[in-house]
Amino acid sequence: xxxxxxxxxxxxxxxxxxxxxxxxxxxxxxxxxxxxxxxxxxxxxxxxxxxxxxxxxxxxxxxxxxxxxxxxxxxxxxxxxxxxxxxxxxxxxxxxxxxxxxxxxxxxxxxxxxxxxxxxxxxxxxxxxxxxxxxxxxxxxxxxxxxxxxxxxxxxxxxxxxxxxxxxxxxxxxxxxxxxxx
Length: 182
Hints:
The protein is an alpha+beta fold and 182 residues long. It is built from six helices and eight strands. Strand 4 and strand 5 form a beta hairpin. Helix 2 (29-36) packs across helix 4 (54-64). Mean pLDDT is 93; it is low at 1-7.
């Protein structure tokens, strides 16, 4: 398994039937702000503040993207940025946390599952992670359904910080071992 620094610099484009996943860049700032700045999106994420502005997107691109496996989810036909998906490596290089968000315009049509499947596959096969974790806030069962479709199993209730809400929130922890992925 390569070290984190080498791996994140070598982020390939991933394609699915409807999506192209690519490294986000400064040309995406307006779209990132529009999507992550939507209260219905930010309140479902742990690390995204609200309100979310251009300086937050610049921080994300300059600090998070270089250190984590992060892809812009774009609609293959038009190139429109519709969300983000990524793997945040845990210390020790064997596990990463899957996270994702989408523009509400694309909720409920399988995009998160489609993007997640490509990233989970890449994480296990190309990067070599042995397991993945993910969390969803208890008031967001749709995210739990996405994770179950990807093969994740529930490991229990937890509380997690939500920057947008400004407090700890009830959450569900999910886990996926390399051998169980679809």
